[in-house]
């Protein structure tokens, strides 16, 4: 079956709508964590314990911007292509803008990053598309949506840096980011990946100190793309 696909940015200002959308988001995210477990730092075991109000408050964090790919049947009228309708099939989350002193990962081996006066800094994560909709350019649309949002927020005359961390088990996906102009930007540990996505609270109580072979090995692949609003216009 062919579908119409549309990318939406989850709005967080209407509490009733947000409660409904948070339920849809939780279902999509838990599907991602169960069928594509090897791709992510977080796990189904961690996120399946979140309550409805935790899902809402996670989406409501002011620095979190969540993009959703929605599939509509081909006879859907444009005015019916709203975020609360259709099937939610994919997502990408953008966190930022983050000041340089918090964003920078000393020891990552990546290139020097610019000051906050010349570029705004963003972390993209949780990029996912349901298997039955893969290979149709949906992830590209989600990632471009996030890049464009970051560039727009940075404003005219300022650059935006979007960074992604790739799980070492998921190296083939690099091709997706290569094709969208991302370049290699060093390596990270699992605890750095949790910190970079604003989820240090999901680390174990000892922040991984008792499992250094899991949390402190620098195997994650960092890629980044620097864009300007002018380039994307
Ligand atoms: C990775 C993922 C999001 C791609 O979704 P998708 O909608 O099928 O991607 P697209 O159709 O937009 O593909 C874009 C490009 O990336 C390439 N690509 C996508 N996934 C790839 C993979 N696993 N290995 C190699 N290349 C891949 C495609 O070849 C395509 O390039 P092309 O258009 O030049 O042929 C999807 O496979 C997925 O959800 N995987 C599990 C979760 C995951 O790995 N997320 C990434 C975390 S960093």
From TrEMBL:
* A single MF term (Gene Ontology): acyltransferase activity, transferring groups other than amino-acyl groups
The UniProt record lists the N-acetyltransferase domain at 120-182
UniProt-listed Pfam families: Acetyltransf_1 (PF00583)
| InterPro entries attached to this UniProt entry | Acyl_CoA_acyltransferase, GNAT_dom
- The name this protein carries in UniProt is N-acetyltransferase domain-containing protein
